[in-house]
Amino acid sequence: MNKRVPLILISIFIACIAQAQILPQRTVTFKNPPGVSAPKGYSHSAEIDLGKSKMLILSGQVAFDENGTLVGKDDMGKQTEQVFTNIKRIVTDAGGSMNDVVKLTFYLRDVSKIQQVRDVRDKYINTQTPPASTLVEVSRLFRDDVLIEIEATAVIPKG
């Protein structure tokens, strides 16, 4: 056996350890910030450390106020307003702004109400450079009186 093989393997091992200590640790923190309803069995957001920035992945937000009461029964516009209020609170709590939102996914019970949703959305996002977006019409959400649910992802610069 070649005597250099163990030395090469040791060198590779040392290089891997050194590299692991140089690279930032990618950690995930689950959060439930104040100002949004207390979730049952899930977290409102997962924050992932990316080194110079952090990614914030939000659970689907619905029109519950901080006490867990539905806002805007039978009113798509009012429900959408509360949903974006919740998204903004979560993103702001993580040190970001709505300009840091890079992706929105909309689940609507009635896609014919899309203009009401857009009117509210446009008050919260940068309409010149809007985030990526997906819209899906669904037959039901987890409660019959919930008309809309929105997931969001943000990338927030550090420092």
UniProtKB/TrEMBL annotation:
Pfam families tied to this protein: Ribonuc_L-PSP (PF01042)
GO cellular component, one term: cytosol
GO molecular function: deaminase activity
Domain of life: Bacteria
Alphabetic keyword roster: Signal
Signal peptide stretch: 1-20
InterPro entries: RutC-like_sf, YjgF/YER057c/UK114
Family, per entry: Belongs to the RutC family.
Protein name per the record: RidA family protein
